[in-house]
């Protein structure tokens, strides 16, 4: 068996096209959405993601505002950048690219974001709304990667009701909010959240109908761990992993290539969930502007 492709690149392109029309309608009413980003340091992955987010904005007609700070920026400098974006009327939504360099307190920074401009849905108020299940579409943002994962599955007519979902990784951008989203009554999945303290990750993965690998450990999910026909989404990224054939260093996901021989569906990395994360960010920005 070779798994079918969950093509995030194509789905994200379709979403951007829809958003472009919504942005045009907003502009007819005199509202110009603007996405702000706070990028601290020179991490190549973070720099690339931020650059891609702004390229997406250009494509759909959203204005771009950048706050780029050096790697040795102080907590006060980062907080000042957040306050500038809170006060800037041209910025209708913004994100602080994570992770921040060591020594900076990202929780404190996230708390300073104006919840109405929180394009990532990571402000405690918006995460709280997710917990309370009061952020139905159009009332407050849902974190981009979890939203992108659910959207990608639904677009491919994959029903989650009653499914056993194993999420590997408990980070604030993916694992934790994804568990909350999937257990909503309208999705009704049953979620197991594995983490570094889980005794036997393979045992949980083997039982799952859907596996979301978001641990950031290269090739940790192998074919022998996956139930035949399962749906596997690769979210984790490791950079600088040597290619087994050429020896050249490259980007690797959490899911080994041989999983494609066992799984029913695979969202690859790159080309799966990453583009959906960016598309959901744009959707959050457009929705925030529409709410205004
Ligand atoms: N403030 C945030 N920081 C981070 C988030 C987030 O949602 N908000 N998530 C991740 C990274 N991320 C978003 O910023 C992200 C990951 C992947 C992609 C993407 O488009 N990936 C491409 C490949 C890109 C490449 O070649 O390197 C793909 O998968 O096809 C975009 C955004 C951590 N930080």
TrEMBL record:
Pathway: One-carbon metabolism; tetrahydrofolate interconversion. Keywords: Amino-acid biosynthesis, Histidine biosynthesis, Hydrolase, Methionine biosynthesis, Multifunctional enzyme, NADP, One-carbon metabolism, Oxidoreductase, Purine biosynthesis. The keyword Amino-acid biosynthesis applies. It catalyses: (6R)-5,10-methenyltetrahydrofolate + H2O = (6R)-10-formyltetrahydrofolate + H(+); (6R)-5,10-methylene-5,6,7,8-tetrahydrofolate + NADP(+) = (6R)-5,10-methenyltetrahydrofolate + NADPH. InterPro entries: Aminoacid_DH-like_N_sf, NAD(P)-bd_dom_sf, THF_DH/CycHdrlase, THF_DH/CycHdrlase_cat_dom, THF_DH/CycHdrlase_NAD-bd_dom. Residues 143-292 form the Tetrahydrofolate dehydrogenase/cyclohydrolase NAD(P)-binding domain. Belongs to the tetrahydrofolate dehydrogenase/cyclohydrolase family. NCBIfam families: PRK14193.1. Homodimer. Catalyzes the oxidation of 5,10-methylenetetrahydrofolate to 5,10-methenyltetrahydrofolate and then the hydrolysis of 5,10-methenyltetrahydrofolate to 10-formyltetrahydrofolate. This is Bifunctional protein FolD.
């Amino acid at each position: 068996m070779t798994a079918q492709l969950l093509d995030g690149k194509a789905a994200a392109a379709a979403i951007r096209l829809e958003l472009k029309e919504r942005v045009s309608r907003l502009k007819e009413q005199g509202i110009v959405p603007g996405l702000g980003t706070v990028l601290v340091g020179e991490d190549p992955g973070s720099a690339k993601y931020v650059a891609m987010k702004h390229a997406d904005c250009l494509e759909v007609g959203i204005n771009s505002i950048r706050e780029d700070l050096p790697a040795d920026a102080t907590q006060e400098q980062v907080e000042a950048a957040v306050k500038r974006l809170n006060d800037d009327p041209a910025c209708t939504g913004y994100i602080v690219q994570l992770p921040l360099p060591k020594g900076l307190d990202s929780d404190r920074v996230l708390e300073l974001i104006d919840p109405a401009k929180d394009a990532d849905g990571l402000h405690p108020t918006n995460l709280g709304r997710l917990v309370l299940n009061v952020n139905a579409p159009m009332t407050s943002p849902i974190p981009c990667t979890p939203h992108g994962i659910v959207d990608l599955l639904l677009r491919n007519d994959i029903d989650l009701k009653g499914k056993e979902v194993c999420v590997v990784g408990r980070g604030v951008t993916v694992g934790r909010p994804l568990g909350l989203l999937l257990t909503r009554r309208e999705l009704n999945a049953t979620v197991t959240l594995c983490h570094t303290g889980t005794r036997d990750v393979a045992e949980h993965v083997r039982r799952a109908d859907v596996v979301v690998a978001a641990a950031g450990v290269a090739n940790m999910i192998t074919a022998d761990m996956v139930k035949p026909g399962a749906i596997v989404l690769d979210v984790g990224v490791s950079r600088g992993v040597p290619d087994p054939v050429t020896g050249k260093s490259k980007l690797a996901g959490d899911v080994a290539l041989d999983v494609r021989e066992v799984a029913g569906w695979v969202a690859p990395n790159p080309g799966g969930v990453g583009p959906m994360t960016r598309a959901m960010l744009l959707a959050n920005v457009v929705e925030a502007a529409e709410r205004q």
